[in-house]
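REVIEWER CHECKLIST
Item 1: Sequence provided? yes
Item 2: Single chain? yes
Item 3: Sequence as submitted:
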Amino acid sequence: MNKTILSITLPVVLALGISSSANANGFYVAANSLHAEYEDDFDEAGYNVAVGKYIGEGKRVSLELGYTDYGDKTVNQNGIDAEFKASAIQFSAVAYVPLSPRAGLYGRVGAERIKTKASSNTLRAKVEETNPFFGVGGYYNVTENIDVRVEYQRHEQSDEYFDSYNAGVTVETF
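Item 4: Structure as written out by the authors:
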Protein backbone atom coordinates (compact mmCIF):
# COMPACT_ATOMS: atom_id res chain seq x y z
CA MET A 1 0.00 0.00 0.00
CA ASN A 2 2.79 2.47 0.89
CA LYS A 3 4.55 1.74 -2.42
CA THR A 4 1.34 2.47 -4.31
CA ILE A 5 0.88 5.79 -2.51
CA LEU A 6 4.54 6.69 -3.12
CA SER A 7 4.36 5.76 -6.80
CA ILE A 8 1.27 7.94 -7.26
CA THR A 9 2.52 10.96 -5.32
CA LEU A 10 6.15 10.95 -6.50
CA PRO A 11 5.41 12.57 -9.89
CA VAL A 12 3.27 15.28 -8.29
CA VAL A 13 5.88 16.11 -5.64
CA LEU A 14 8.67 16.27 -8.22
CA ALA A 15 6.61 18.50 -10.51
CA LEU A 16 5.76 20.92 -7.71
CA GLY A 17 9.35 21.03 -6.49
CA ILE A 18 10.79 21.98 -9.85
CA SER A 19 10.52 25.57 -11.00
CA SER A 20 9.86 25.88 -14.70
CA SER A 21 10.99 28.78 -16.81
CA ALA A 22 8.98 30.65 -19.39
CA ASN A 23 12.18 30.82 -21.45
CA ALA A 24 12.87 27.08 -21.31
CA ASN A 25 15.16 25.89 -24.10
CA GLY A 26 13.71 22.47 -24.77
CA PHE A 27 15.02 20.43 -21.83
CA TYR A 28 12.49 18.68 -19.62
CA VAL A 29 12.22 16.30 -16.70
CA ALA A 30 9.57 13.61 -16.45
CA ALA A 31 8.31 11.60 -13.50
CA ASN A 32 5.84 8.74 -13.83
CA SER A 33 4.24 6.21 -11.58
CA LEU A 34 3.81 2.85 -13.28
CA HIS A 35 2.27 -0.54 -13.00
CA ALA A 36 4.34 -3.45 -14.39
CA GLU A 37 2.76 -6.80 -15.30
CA TYR A 38 4.19 -10.13 -16.37
CA GLU A 39 1.58 -12.87 -16.64
CA ASP A 40 0.51 -13.90 -13.11
CA ASP A 41 4.07 -13.82 -11.74
CA PHE A 42 4.74 -10.08 -11.43
CA ASP A 43 2.12 -7.38 -10.88
CA GLU A 44 3.77 -4.44 -9.11
CA ALA A 45 3.86 -0.64 -8.80
CA GLY A 46 7.01 1.26 -9.70
CA TYR A 47 8.24 4.60 -11.03
CA ASN A 48 10.22 6.23 -13.82
CA VAL A 49 12.25 9.44 -13.89
CA ALA A 50 13.80 10.88 -17.03
CA VAL A 51 15.52 13.88 -18.58
CA GLY A 52 14.75 14.81 -22.16
CA LYS A 53 15.53 17.34 -24.87
CA TYR A 54 13.27 18.41 -27.70
CA ILE A 55 15.17 18.44 -30.99
CA GLY A 56 14.26 20.33 -34.12
CA GLU A 57 11.40 22.77 -34.53
CA GLY A 58 8.02 22.65 -32.87
CA LYS A 59 8.47 20.05 -30.12
CA ARG A 60 7.73 17.16 -32.48
CA VAL A 61 10.68 14.91 -31.48
CA SER A 62 12.67 14.45 -28.29
CA LEU A 63 15.45 12.26 -26.96
CA GLU A 64 15.06 10.91 -23.43
CA LEU A 65 17.32 9.21 -20.87
CA GLY A 66 15.64 7.64 -17.86
CA TYR A 67 15.70 5.24 -14.96
CA THR A 68 12.80 2.86 -14.27
CA ASP A 69 12.14 0.82 -11.15
CA TYR A 70 9.56 -1.82 -12.06
CA GLY A 71 8.98 -2.71 -8.42
CA ASP A 72 9.77 -5.78 -6.37
CA LYS A 73 7.87 -8.81 -5.23
CA THR A 74 8.34 -11.24 -2.35
CA VAL A 75 6.88 -14.72 -2.54
CA ASN A 76 6.93 -17.69 -0.18
CA GLN A 77 6.95 -21.16 -1.71
CA ASN A 78 7.38 -24.28 0.39
CA GLY A 79 8.74 -22.22 3.29
CA ILE A 80 11.35 -20.43 1.16
CA ASP A 81 11.13 -16.64 0.85
CA ALA A 82 12.16 -15.28 -2.54
CA GLU A 83 12.42 -11.66 -3.67
CA PHE A 84 12.39 -10.36 -7.25
CA LYS A 85 13.47 -6.84 -8.29
CA ALA A 86 13.59 -5.29 -11.75
CA SER A 87 14.96 -1.95 -12.97
CA ALA A 88 16.31 -0.40 -16.18
CA ILE A 89 18.27 2.47 -17.68
CA GLN A 90 16.48 3.60 -20.83
CA PHE A 91 17.32 5.72 -23.86
CA SER A 92 14.57 6.52 -26.34
CA ALA A 93 13.38 8.78 -29.14
CA VAL A 94 9.86 10.15 -28.80
CA ALA A 95 7.73 11.48 -31.69
CA TYR A 96 4.72 13.69 -30.90
CA VAL A 97 1.54 14.15 -32.97
CA PRO A 98 -0.56 17.12 -31.80
CA LEU A 99 -4.33 16.60 -32.00
CA SER A 100 -5.16 20.08 -30.70
CA PRO A 101 -3.14 23.03 -29.37
CA ARG A 102 -3.04 21.37 -25.92
CA ALA A 103 -3.27 17.59 -26.47
CA GLY A 104 -1.78 14.89 -28.61
CA LEU A 105 -0.40 11.40 -28.99
CA TYR A 106 3.16 10.13 -29.01
CA GLY A 107 5.18 7.06 -29.80
CA ARG A 108 8.47 5.95 -28.30
CA VAL A 109 11.22 3.57 -29.45
CA GLY A 110 14.40 2.89 -27.59
CA ALA A 111 16.75 0.53 -25.85
CA GLU A 112 16.95 -0.34 -22.18
CA ARG A 113 19.56 -2.02 -20.03
CA ILE A 114 17.22 -4.06 -17.86
CA LYS A 115 18.38 -5.78 -14.70
CA THR A 116 16.43 -8.38 -12.75
CA LYS A 117 17.60 -9.71 -9.39
CA ALA A 118 16.22 -12.77 -7.63
CA SER A 119 17.25 -13.85 -4.17
CA SER A 120 16.13 -16.41 -1.63
CA ASN A 121 17.39 -17.72 1.68
CA THR A 122 20.39 -19.38 0.03
CA LEU A 123 20.52 -18.39 -3.67
CA ARG A 124 21.08 -15.16 -5.59
CA ALA A 125 20.76 -14.59 -9.33
CA LYS A 126 20.99 -11.55 -11.59
CA VAL A 127 20.11 -11.16 -15.26
CA GLU A 128 21.21 -8.08 -17.22
CA GLU A 129 20.35 -7.52 -20.88
CA THR A 130 20.04 -4.69 -23.34
CA ASN A 131 16.84 -4.94 -25.37
CA PRO A 132 14.60 -2.71 -27.47
CA PHE A 133 11.33 -1.40 -26.06
CA PHE A 134 8.49 0.74 -27.35
CA GLY A 135 5.60 2.77 -26.04
CA VAL A 136 2.53 4.70 -27.12
CA GLY A 137 0.73 7.37 -25.15
CA GLY A 138 -1.12 10.63 -24.93
CA TYR A 139 -0.38 14.00 -23.36
CA TYR A 140 -2.24 17.12 -22.27
CA ASN A 141 -0.61 20.56 -21.73
CA VAL A 142 -1.73 21.79 -18.31
CA THR A 143 0.37 24.94 -18.77
CA GLU A 144 2.90 26.02 -21.37
CA ASN A 145 5.66 24.09 -19.56
CA ILE A 146 3.79 21.28 -17.76
CA ASP A 147 2.23 18.23 -19.43
CA VAL A 148 0.44 15.26 -17.95
CA ARG A 149 0.76 11.99 -19.84
CA VAL A 150 -0.26 8.36 -19.88
CA GLU A 151 1.62 5.62 -21.70
CA TYR A 152 1.69 1.91 -22.43
CA GLN A 153 5.14 0.31 -22.85
CA ARG A 154 6.22 -3.16 -24.01
CA HIS A 155 9.51 -4.59 -22.67
CA GLU A 156 11.57 -7.73 -23.26
CA GLN A 157 13.92 -9.75 -21.09
CA SER A 158 15.22 -13.30 -21.59
CA ASP A 159 12.99 -13.70 -24.67
CA GLU A 160 9.91 -12.95 -22.54
CA TYR A 161 7.71 -9.86 -22.78
CA PHE A 162 6.09 -7.75 -20.09
CA ASP A 163 4.02 -4.57 -20.04
CA SER A 164 3.99 -1.36 -18.05
CA TYR A 165 1.30 1.29 -17.76
CA ASN A 166 2.60 4.76 -16.88
CA ALA A 167 1.04 8.06 -15.75
CA GLY A 168 2.92 11.19 -14.82
CA VAL A 169 4.08 14.71 -15.56
CA THR A 170 6.63 16.37 -17.80
CA VAL A 171 8.06 19.75 -16.78
CA GLU A 172 10.06 21.83 -19.23
CA THR A 173 12.81 23.18 -17.03
CA PHE A 174 16.09 24.59 -18.23
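Item 5: Key structural point noted by reviewer: The longest strand covers residues 80-98.
Item 6: Recommendation: ____
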